[in-house]
Design goal:
The protein is α/β, with parallel strands linked by helices. The chain is built from seven helices and ten strands. The longest helix is centred in the last third of the chain and has 16 residues, at 178-193. It binds adenosine-5'-triphosphate (ATP) and magnesium ion.
Length: 223
């Protein structure tokens, strides 16, 4: 369908750990509509992060296909795929994955550099994004000097460095108190209002209630 920015067909993913095979996804067909705010919910260990990684082309399905704006990403070589990800997608991971030795500003600057922002504009862009998530005054703090919610907001600023059309976020409010959660939710709503496609994995009912679409993953399938 034309208004789907991401579409999957019969996605399967299994992981092999020694002799043990885990079938994390068992045939997932779905559509993420362009400009939508979609939540992915479901119990722990049932395949949400796995699905998110496949939607963003970070990992390959065992079977099935992912289409990003109509292009089947399995048909692309790694460099073309990395380029497409870099142009279109911002990721926020379940565990923030900030570079601990760098300040908040430097973490965002690195992402701006990787996104191809010219060197003399990287610092300004990083500061603008940190201001957008309410963290301008913490620009020179390292992750260890920031609260969990602040680190999560740095991770969101970093995900915006390439001005992506699609934001894929895995538990952006995991481990946050309700005030920090409300702040992150407000940021997500603003991004959606700006026209971005926002996909959020969450256990948080408050976020799920605000979403336009809710996808429930249970036992590796969509319910
Ligand atoms: N790299 C991996 N190697 C082996 N098994 C994995 C790997 N990643 C995930 N799994 C397994 O795949 C299943 C789905 O994991 P996944 O991380 O997608 O769950 P989840 O729904 O995101 O859970 P949570 O809510 O706890 O984050 C689990 O059984 C998990 O143990
Ligand atoms: Mg997960």
């Amino acid at each position: 369908m034309s208004d789907a920015i991401i579409r999957t067909e019969n996605l399967e993913k299994s992981y092999q750990t020694g002799a043990v095979t885990t079938q994390a996804l068992r045939g997932v067909t779905l559509e993420i509509k362009k400009g939508s705010f979609t939540c992915i919910v479901g119990p722990s260990g049932h395949g949400k992060s796995t699905l998110m990684h496949l939607l963003g082309g970070l990992d390959h399905p065992t079977k099935g296909s992912v289409f990003l704006e109509g292009v089947e990403i399995g048909s692309l070589d790694n460099s073309r795929l990395a380029q497409l990800r870099g142009e279109k997608i911002g990721f926020v991971f379940q565990f923030f994955n900030l570079l601990q030795g760098l300040t908040a500003k430097e973490n965002v600057e690195v992402a701006a550099m990787l996104a191809g922002v010219p060197e003399k504009e990287q610092a300004e862009r990083a500061m603008k994004l940190l201001a957008q998530v309410g963290l301008a005054e913490k620009a020179d703090s390292k992750p260890s000097q920031l609260s969990g919610g602040q680190q999560q907001r740095v991770a969101i600023a970093r995900a915006l460095a390439n001005d992506p059309a699609i934001l894929l976020m895995d538990e952006p409010t995991g481990n946050l108190d309700s005030a920090a959660e409300a702040e992150v939710l407000e940021i997500l709503r603003n991004l959606h209002a700006q026209g971005k496609t926002v996909v959020v994995v969450t256990h948080n009912n408050e976020i799920a209630c605000k979403a336009e679409y809710v996808i429930c993953v249970r036992d590796g399938q969509i319910q």
